[in-house]
Design goal:
Number of domains: 2
Structural class: alpha/beta
Strand order of the largest sheet: 2-3-4-1-5
CATH architecture of the largest domain: Orthogonal Bundle
Radius of gyration: 22 Å
Oligomer: single chain
Number of strands: 11
Number of helices: 18
Helix content: 40-55%
Strand content: 15-25%
Largest sheet: 5 strands, parallel
Length: 380
């Protein structure tokens, strides 16, 4: 079984015992439990890992009674509360405990930012370091195994959840991915949010899976699904907060000629997207391979951002006449523009070069993406 080194691990270790809690957010099955168990392993009997999905653990969390947590923390230096979003009022409870018993390092993990982030981060302002743990990045995979071209096509087809990457059998990969896509990803949304029509919700996800890389119209989605724009907006927000999709907005400094309010939707893991549409057809022969490749590149940029103190903004650029740049990465005043093409490269559009002469442009293909994310980051 392959053990993957996570890029945020060293950062977390360096921030332990700084009189602050640590929260690790990310989708289910992204490796949060594995990472936290590794973090506390060296503390032996002075470290403990608790699954907050168990009722016997949740009973110790009582508002206004931080001493109720002492049976779980006494004699410990570091404690992990896994899937902490399952505990009601988790933020105020941990704040009270932290203020009353400051000696224990607490790490809380959660698979839904709409619940855990709000419940912990708001009460714990100034008392918490937050990290995001997405599925594996190319850089993280490459630390454990050499990536070949065939591997790259598999990652674009089956995604990069740790259990999927570690499995050598293609049939088992499909089974694991199907379980993730159907049993795990929506679990928190259905538990914590009132979804009046689950069928509409699931149909929306499939429609979004067919539109990756394309402009999304709220009106069209609402019409197709027979619901209001506000329902679509709410569902999109929940999907993003549950780490299933990422909404990417347009970049514009000139609203007269450039789209300013347009947006696209990408999946945090392309394997999940493909499991909803087609997980059988090989990458090289797929009609949607260009869109999948663009989604794959966008999510790799986002994964890189989770390791940075000030991550870049990820956007796209499009004029009202239809000229487009697939991906814009903006960091402060620096602008990086990328065109994603399966094989052949492409030159920068003249209209973009004229509007943003200082922007750096690069054509990303299946032949140079590893260099962009693996070799370049290793030397930077």
């Amino acid at each position: 079984m392959i053990t993957f080194q996570r890029a945020i691990e060293t950062q977390i270790v360096n921030l332990l015992f700084k009189n602050r809690m640590v929260s690790i957010l990310g989708p289910r099955q992204s490796g949060k439990t594995t990472l936290t168990k590794k973090l506390i392993k060296e503390y032996r009997e002075h470290g403990e890992h608790y699954d907050c999905q168990l009722a016997e653990i949740r009973k110790h969390f009582v508002v206004g009674k931080p001493d109720k947590l002492l049976p779980l923390t006494i004699g410990k230096k570091i404690v992990v509360f896994d899937e902490a979003q399952t505990v009601q009022d988790i933020g105020s409870i941990l704040k009270a405990y932290h203020d009353t018993y400051p000696g224990v390092q607490i790490i809380a993990t959660g698979s839904s930012s709409f619940d855990l982030a709000n419940k912990i981060n708001e009460p714990m302002t100034g008392r918490i370091f937050e990290f995001i743990l997405p599925p594996l990045s190319l850089l993280e995979i490459n630390m454990s195994k050499h990536i070949t071209s065939n591997d790259l096509f598999q990652y674009m087809l089956y995604g990069t959840y740790p259990a999927v990457v570690a499995e050598s059998s293609l049939d088992f990969k499909k089974t694991i991915l199907k379980n993730i896509a159907t049993q795990y990803l929506y679990k928190d949304i259905f538990i914590f949010e009132a979804i009046r029509n689950p069928r509409v919700f699931e149909d929306l996800i499939k429609l979004l899976a067919l539109q990756i890389g394309s402009l999304v119209s709220l009106n069209e989605l609402a019409t197709q699904l027979g619901v209001s724009r506000s329902v679509i907006q709410r569902y999109l927000r929940l999907l993003e907060q549950a780490f299933i999709i990422k909404i990417v907005h347009s970049f514009s400094n000139n609203p007269r000629t450039e789209l300013k309010k347009a947006f696209k939707v990408f999946f945090l893991d392309v394997g999940v997207r493909n499991a909803l549409i087609d997980i059988v057809s090989p990458m090289e022969t797929r009609a949607d391979k260009g869109a999948i490749f663009e989604n794959f590149f966008v999510t790799e940029l986002m994964k890189k951002g989770t390791t940075e103190i000030f991550p870049s903004e990820i956007m796209f650029w499009r004029t009202r006449t239809g000229v487009e740049i697939d991906v814009i990465e903006k960091n402060g005043s620096k602008i990086f523009a990328y065109e994603c093409k399966w094989k052949e490269g492409i030159t920068v559009p003249v209209s973009f070069q004229t509007a943003y002469p200082d922007a750096h442009f690069e054509s990303i293909t299946t032949e140079n993406i590893l260099t962009h994310f693996v070799k370049r980051q290793k030397t930077s």
